[in-house]
Amino acid sequence: MRRWIKVLLVVLGALLVLGQVLPFPRAENPPVEAEVPAPPQVRAVLRAACYDCHSNETAWPWYSGVVPAKWLVRNHVREGREHLNFSTWNRYSADRAAHLLEEVAEEVEKGSMPLRSYLLLHHEARLSPEARRLLVDWARAGGGGEEGRRPREEGREGEAPGPLP
Ligand code: HEC
Question: Using an 8 Å Cβ cutoff, are 89 and 56 in contact?
Answer without folding.
Answer: no
